[in-house]
Design brief:
single chain, mainly alpha
Length: 96
């Protein structure tokens, strides 16, 4: 592994709630529910609450989750969220 992995450059506190939730969802799909609980060090109820938007995913959980994604997967998530924001802004401006 690289001495400075890509995820160490991510500012988790700047991520939207939706990006945080999608990161966890992607990790859960890759690892499965039980393994995700284990590697993130969280309990079933917390993961459920994070995935359903009842609670905000803490920065430390985001950083742990990022270690199980490829940089390209993270970039896809961020681009998806940015596209949603762009479309919402266009709707508000009446551009769509």
């Amino acid at each position: 592994m690289s001495a400075n992995p890509w995820y160490t450059r991510v500012n988790a506190s700047a991520l939207s709630n939706e990006a945080r939730r999608l990161i966890l969802e992607r990790v859960k799909r890759k690892l499965g529910f039980t393994k995700t609980l284990e590697v993130l060090g969280i309990v079933r109820g917390s993961l459920h609450n994070y995935l359903h938007g009842f609670r905000t995913v803490p920065d430390n959980v985001v950083y742990k989750a990022l270690q199980y994604l490829e940089e390209g997967e993270f970039n896809e998530i961020v681009q998806y969220v940015l596209n949603i924001v762009e479309k919402a802004s266009a709707l508000l401006r009446g551009s769509l």
